[in-house]
Design brief:
By secondary structure, the chain is mostly helical. The protein contains 17 helices and no strands. The chain has helices spanning 3-25, 30-49, 57-75, 81-103, 112-138, 142-148, 162-186, 196-215, 219-234, 239-256, 263-269, 277-295, 313-318, 332-361, 367-383, 390-406, 422-425.
């Protein structure tokens, strides 16, 4: 391996380790860690392939729509100046993310051996992080207290580990996909499900993720993990129909989730289930968001501008859990619509279609695991993080890069050297 390729390999390996292990103790490190991975992949493709990596047409259309809409709003005088500044800070990172995903299958990791090393490394660091997270949650954050110098009596709630729990819940899917594909290739046509070693390691990985979700208070990650696992098992034989259903549901939620804000609480109240208070808090946020969308249905309130939506005193008196406008609606579809208007919903639809297409044209063996990752990410995105939070985008970026590597074409073998003399020809 040449020296530049070795540098790229080490950089990507280091970026994954930093994102997982250091991100456990400082979530803000996830963004620079992923940026390190992204830049290494993009620069490698540029210098060794001779061109910049270009995202797929659907992704490119979504990025141009987002950037163009932000430009127009800035030129006509965005009423929320903080929103325009926030947009111009985040949009370049979104472009970087898309370019990294496009660069992944064109990079040196298209080499089967390097791809194998990368996924082994990723799986090892993932399990290490799961172990550290279990120690933190079981023993009242001993490592974090030591690293941060926190006193023994300071409260360290399990919520500070929610992002790492979410990242582990997402990253287990591409790692499982690679392991199954590698086992299937090694055994020829033999089904990987009949291989006890493969099943044992898969169960170990998913059990570790389930354990850290159970120990943490990340209800959304746990819900995403369980529902995605059940859905993937149910659709394993009809993966095409499952992908079609998920795509259609995601598009419908992007375009009309605000209309469910008043319906869902009444429906769930009839169920004999003790729903967590956090869910009722979400309902109040979503009703407030739906009202804000109705007030500005076309243009929205500005990039990252939901926090600028006023919260009327009458709404505050009627609320049980929400006493001020939060920083984001805790729902990706609602955030796109309330902040960017109809253009935001169209942006989301293009991204969903691009993801669905990438899964369908990718390796058949990877489709169930990619679908599981999509369902997990969709549930978390609909219930938890703000869409423009850098750590959340970095998580999605790393998972998409790893899934993109699964679709990397195998490097063609080097042609044999022709004989140079008559004796060789004979």
């Amino acid at each position: 391996m040449t020296a530049p390729n070795q540098v790229v390999k080490i950089t990507v390996f280091a970026g994954i380790a930093l994102m997982l292990v250091v991100g456990l103790y400082a979530r803000h490190s996830m963004v620079p860690s992923f940026a390190l991975i992204a830049v290494a992949l993009i620069v490698h493709v540029r210098w060794h392939r001779g061109h910049w990596p270009v995202p797929s047409p659907l992704v490119l259309a979504a990025l141009l729509l987002l950037t163009g809409w932000l430009t127009v709003r800035t030129l006509i005088g965005e009423s929320c100046y903080r929103c325009a500044a926030a947009g111009w800070q985040m949009v370049p990172f979104i472009w970087l993310l898309a370019a990294a995903v496009a660069a992944a299958p064109l990079s040196i990791f298209a080499e089967p051996e390097l791809r194998r090393q990368l996924f082994i490394w990723t799986a090892m660091v993932t399990m290490l992080t799961a172990g550290l997270l279990a120690v933190e949650l079981l023993f009242d954050a001993p490592v974090y207290r030591f690293v941060a110098g926190r006193p023994a009596d300071a409260i360290v709630g399990p919520a500070r580990y929610n992002r790492t729990a979410a990242l582990l819940t997402l990253i287990i899917w591409p790692c499982a996909a690679w392991y199954v594909m590698a086992a299937k290739q090694a055994k020829g046509d033999r089904s990987w499900r009949s291989n006890r070693q493969v099943l044992a390691l898969l169960l170990l990985g998913f059990a570790a993720v389930a354990a850290v979700n159970a120990l943490s208070d990340s209800e959304t990650s746990a819900a995403g993990f369980i529902l995605a696992l059940l859905f993937t098992i149910a659709c394993y034989r009809i993966i095409g129909l499952g992908l079609l259903f998920v795509t259609a549901a995601a598009v419908a939620l992007l375009l009309g989730f605000q209309h469910l804000a008043d319906i869902l609480p009444a429906v769930l109240a009839e169920w004999p289930v003790a729903w967590p208070d956090s869910l009722w808090h979400r309902f109040e946020i979503w009703r407030h968001t739906a009202a804000a969308i109705a007030e500005r249905p076309w243009q929205g309130w500005g990039f990252d501008g939901y926090r600028e939506v006023p919260f009327a005193s009458a709404d505050r008196e009627a609320a049980r859990f929400m006493f001020e406008t939060p920083t984001h609606p805790h729902n990706a579809g609602l955030q796109l619509r309330v902040e960017l208007g109809l253009a935001g919903s169209l942006f989301g639809v293009l991204v969903v279609l691009a993801v669905a297409r990438a899964i369908w044209v990718g390796p058949v063996a990877a489709r169930p695991w990619a679908l599981g990752a999509v369902v997990t990410a969709a549930i978390i995105a609909e219930l938890a993080y703000g869409l423009w939070q850098g750590s959340w985008l970095a998580m999605l970026g790393l998972v998409m890069v790893l899934h993109g590597l699964l679709a990397a074409p195998a490097t063609p073998p080097t042609p044999p050297t022709p004989p140079t003399n008559v004796a060789d020809r004979s």
